Amino acid sequence: MNESVLEVGDMDAFAERLGIGSRHLRRLFLKHLGASPIAVAQTRRLHFAKKLIDESRLPMRDVAIASGFGSVRRFNATFLKTYRRTPTQLRKVSRPAASVPNSGYRFLLRFRPPFCWVALLEFLAPRAIPGIEIVEGQTYRRVFSLENHVGSIQARLDDASESIVLSIHYPQPQWLFLIVERVRRLFDLSADPNEIVLHLRRDPVLTRQIAARPGVRVPGCWDGFELAIRAILGQQVTVQGATTLAGRMVRAFGVPTGSENGFTHLFPSPERLADADLGQIGLPRARAHCIRSLARAVCDGKIIFSGVANVPDFLERFRELPGIGDWTAQYVAMRALGEPDAFPASDLGLLRATGLRDPRELQARAEAWRPWRAYAALYLWQRPIAVDPRRVAFSPSFPAKQYRPRLAAGSTAVS
After folding, report:
1. Which of 27, 76, 110, 149 is deepest in the core (most CB within 10 A)?
2. Which of 93, 121, 155 lies at the terminal end of a domain, its last residue?
3. b/e per residue, 186-218, with b = 16+ CB within 10 A?
């Protein structure tokens, strides 16, 4: 639903994507949610429309289109039935929306505190693909292509409202919902840090890092194919080396954007990389073959990164590609698929952080961290900080203002 599959298809296509029949899917929704998939999708559209009314100055016709209503008439009727007010009446009683220049859109994406935005940016900054992603100060920006249109996003933390302030510049409002959902996954905004930390802090090896940086999230990605290529480039090289290779690839095979706002290119498409001469950017032959094989698999529909319902099945097919080992598969599962229990046990940074030498030992140690091993990995990848964990009292409610440590300039992740 986050990928707007019901907006571009029907129930049968939705069920087929999940690998089950449409009748069984409807029964599951009614059993566990008390409503049909169509009713759930309608509620999501309604909530998103309400958000657009409250937080944007978008004309009501565009609000109806952006939130997936087929017509303005149905849009008005649904609001009257649900809120007993028209959309225009609701906007009059909402607070004035902040303006965004150049025909952009602005949203407040809320999260459950605590949220360690500093740690998230420290992870993303050294991995930012030159020409596509920019991390400056406390702000993340990137350019993207969606439905043959170019757009960009900018995100920063707003402590006061406990939300991420997202600015979107994109010419087609009907895809705003999909863009917002992708950004939520990129920053892992749906995570429940309370539940995760209460489980992980039972292990002494994680206690110090959790005490120093409560609210660490697992960074997602904008596009699964892009992240998988970035992971392959990172095989057996440093983070800086992989970023350099990614920049060369983008300059050689990406689509130029005109250097607007610091963005120079769009990431190369699978079709472009399937037959690309990757040796010209200094890529070893085996790794170049791996990238071309992945690109062809995506072009042929054998590998699809969006809407993955069966992660083990996906990883099994992914590992069949030449050059894809367990580290790459687990890293992709962690960041591209949002799998909270993914864990690249052979990662040297994780072995170093735990003082272990054998990935099998780390795998055994990590059994106690299930089902949150991806979050344990992110905590272990953080730079060690001298903090006495006895000075940080964890409470079930996690008071928002208590857990926002300010870190020294220059702190970086170690993976």
Report:
1. 76
2. 93
3. bbbbebebbebbebbbebebbbbbbbbbbbbbb
Cα separation, 126 vs 414, in Å, equals 10
Whether 9 maps to a domain, the answer reads yes
Q: What is the CATH number of the domain that holds 82?
A: 1.10.10.60
Reported as a pLDDT band with limits 50, 70 and 90, residue 386 is: very low
The residue count for the chain? 415
**Tokens (6 digits) for 367:** 């059994």
Cα gap 40→270, rounded to integer Å: 33
Mean residue pLDDT of the chain comes to 87
CATH code where residue 274 lies = 1.10.340.30
How many separate helices (H) and strands (E) can be counted in the chain? Answer: 20, 7
Please choose, from the candidates 338, 343, 333, the residue with its C-alpha nearest in 3D space to the C-alpha of residue 364. Answer: 343
Q: Is 108 helix (H, G, I), strand (E, B) or coil?
A: strand
Specify the residue for token string 């920006």.
141
Tens-place pLDDT, residues 302-313: 999 988 888 999
pTM, two decimal places: 0.83
Note whether residue 364 is domain-resident. no
Q: How many CB atoms lie within 10 A of CB 374?
A: 24
Q: Is residue 31 part of a domain?
A: yes
